Amino acid sequence: MAKSYEELEFTDNFMFVKILSSRPDLCAELLEMILQKKISHLEPVTYENSFQPTYESKGIRLDVYVEDDEHTRYDVEMQVEPDINLAKRSRYYHSAMDMEMLLKGSAYSDLKQSYVIFICKNGVPGSMNRPVSTYKNICVENPGEYLEDGTCTVFVNADSKGGETTAEMQNFLEFIRTGKSYGSADSLTGRLHRAVTEAIRTGEWSVEYMWAELEMNKRYLKGKEEGRLEERKNTEAERKRADEEQKRADELSAEVAKLKAELEALKEKANP
């Protein structure tokens, strides 16, 4: 059952997107903490509701998609449930971001640096038990040599059991795990928690959330109905196939019986 607006936390996709999209200052500070680099002014990247490079391809919707003054792109995703496909999802997200830039007429040389960042509440698959795991493409024969293709993927593991990190990051991981504020009121975590509390107190996005839930329910019901229609179609097709196979089997049985009768008749003529 869907949460009410008053029950939403920062880790709920709707609130996560609204807070970071409406507060570029908090988004920039969050990126600085994760990436340990200075982030200049952020602007949301405008694009269609989802990336779908071709009609047949799988469409995706990016959570928080922003660009800094140097045109570096950042996609920040909240991942509540464990997903063994995170690494391959990051690969697809990078390619979708590149395609979005290329479709606007850019050349390969114009592709800017891009980051895909997953903030994982309940763990990261595999051996990534560190608070932050950063991946870039390197040379197998010489691990110190980077491909320099401009892509970087980061996994933030709120369920990490070890690894050194800053006090600020540790407070943030606790905040993701529990929804409670850690550190001072002026810290990043304190301000994120306050932004969520204020949004709920004022009901700022409550109507939008209601419509989003209604739209999601409509898509869910439509998907179920399409599934039932597809199931009926498959059942009818299977029944038709079974009928055709039975018909062929009956025809073969009749043909075998006819050949047996002809063989018996030939035997009788040969041995009167």
| N-to-C series of helices and strands | HHEEEHEEEHHH
The SS-based structural class is alpha/beta
Overall average residue pLDDT: 84
Strand content: 5-15%
Figure out the total of helices: 6
Helicity, as a percent range: 40-55%
Radius of gyration: 29 Å
Separation of termini? 84 Å
* Spatial strand order of the main sheet: 1-2-3-4-6-5
Number of strands: 6
Report the biggest beta sheet as strand number plus sense, adding barrel if it closes: 6 strands, mixed
Overall shape: elongated
User: Could you list the spans in which at least 5 consecutive residues all have pLDDT below 50?
Assistant: none
Question: For this entry, what is the oligomeric state of its chains?
Answer: single chain
Task: Spell out the blueprint of helices and strands.
Elements: H1 13-22, H2 24-35, E1 43-44, E2 64-67, E3 73-79, H3 86-102, E4 114-120, E5 132-135, E6 151-157, H4 167-178, H5 188-202, H6 206-270
Parallel strand pairs: 3-4, 4-6
Antiparallel strand pairs: 1-2, 2-3, 5-6
Helix pairs in contact: 1-2
Supply the key terms.
272 residues, alpha/beta, 6-stranded mixed sheet, 6 helices, 6 strands, 11% strand, elongated
